[in-house]
Fold this protein.
Amino acid sequence: MSKRNFAAVVFFLVIAVFFFFSALMMHPFGVPEKADMDDEIIKGVQIETGTNNGVTSVVFDYRGFDTLGEATILFTAVAGVIMVFRRLKQ
């Protein structure tokens, strides 16, 4: 077995162990840590954010940095695909 194949096997074993223990440590589905969190967001959405749409306020106000990160990843992926297709065209 070459060093490269050995390194790949070790890498995938580490990832598999990580996924296994992550699955064991997850919270049960449908059981939130804090049961009244959604009620607090629904009650305070109009006062805290000034919007009537609760979904929009959660996405852009409460989870703004997360949404910004997702948009950055999407932009980077689209830019990468455009660069690959421009290379193939030339």
